[in-house]
Write a structure and sequence with these properties.
With 112 residues, this protein is α+β, with helices and mostly antiparallel strands. Among the domains are: 3-35, no CATH class; 74-110, no CATH class. Helix content is 29%, strand content 12%. It is built from 3 helices and 2 strands; from the N terminus they run ααββα. It has helices at residues 3-18, 20-25, 101-110; strands at 80-86, 89-95. It has a two-stranded antiparallel sheet. It is extended, with a radius of gyration of 25 Å.
Length: 112
């Protein structure tokens, strides 16, 4: 489903629900049934229904590096944006934005 189609359909449904009491008394306000979205016969109602399943994940306790739950670290000296080699792995540090982490992460990822 495309975003515009979804928003248009949601707007029509909201308008129909909010004017239901008016439509009962005034037929001029009723929204015709043909204006509501209809899924064609044989079509999937959700665009993601036909996606293949995800590959199985081989999870085990010994693969856990750290457990962090909903932390929003703030650093007075500013966010930490740097790469570090630990063994054969490269770890990229991009934290310290505080409560603005999600909105600032895109620009921070472009930072050299």
């Amino acid at each position: 489903m495309h975003r515009r189609h979804f928003l248009r359909s949601a707007g029509v449904a909201l308008a129909a629900a909010s004017t239901a009491s008016w439509a009962a008394t005034d037929k001029a306000l009723a929204i015709p049934r043909t204006a509501l979205p209809v899924t064609p016969p044989g079509a999937s109602p959700a665009p993601f229904a036909a996606m293949p399943p995800l590959a199985p994940m081989h999870a085990s306790i010994d693969r856990i590096i750290a457990i962090n739950g909903c932390t929003r670290p703030f650093r007075a000296q500013g966010p930490r944006i740097e790469a570090e080699r630990i063994g054969r792995k490269t770890v990229v540090h991009n934290y310290g934005h505080g409560g603005s982490g999600w909105s600032l992460s895109w620009g921070a990822a472009e930072h050299d």
